[in-house]
Amino acid sequence: MKRRLRKVETTAAFQSALERQGQVKEPYVLQLYITGMTPRSTEAFSSIKAICEKHLQGRYDLEVIDIYQHPSIAREEQIIAAPTLVKKLPAPLRRLVGNLSQEDRVLNGLGLKRITQSL
Questions:
Q1: Both ends of the chain: CA-CA distance in Å?
Q2: In this structure, which topology does domain 26-110 adopt according to CATH?
Q3: pLDDT tens across 82-113, in order?
Q4: What is the pairing mode between strands 84-89 and 60-66?
Q5: If DSSP states are collapsed to H, E and C, what string results for the chain?
Q6: Has residue 119 got a pLDDT over 90?
Q7: What is this structure's pTM?
Q8: Contact 87, 30 (CB under 8 A)
């Protein structure tokens, strides 16, 4: 007599179990608002890309939005300065404006690491 195996774990249940064990971390959804190909824009992109590759290996989605080419998106998102990095997910939403080359500041803004304070 054949016994039918019941599917015990679904993909969602398996994912949930891994998350409870701390093996899977939530992906980050980031938007970087820049102003064309200016030196500040290219520096901001390079810095954010390097930080994401170092600390979020494979678990981030970075969208780069040029506010000169897409001013309506910048208005909708209430972007008033560039470069601006917006962390959409995981919650809470956070915005980092200005110099994005300071790794500790960016990590703190992304909720990945606290800034170490020197005495």
A1: 74
A2: Glutaredoxin (3.40.30)
A3: 999 999 999 999 999 999 999 999 999 999 87
A4: unpaired
A5: CCCCCCCCCCHHHHHHHHHHCCCCCCCEEEEEEECCCCHHHHHHHHHHHHHHHHHCCCCEEEEEEECCCCHHHHHHCCCCCCCEEEEEECCCCEEEECCCCCHHHHHHHHCCCCCCCCC
A6: no
A7: 0.75
A8: yes
* Residue indicated by tokens 């909720």: 111
Domain boundaries in the chain?
A: 26-110
pLDDT attached to residue 2 = 52
- Cα(20)–Cα(66) distance, integer angstroms: 38
Phi, psi of 103 (to 5 degrees): -60, -45
- Residue 67 near residue 34, CB atoms below 8 Å: yes
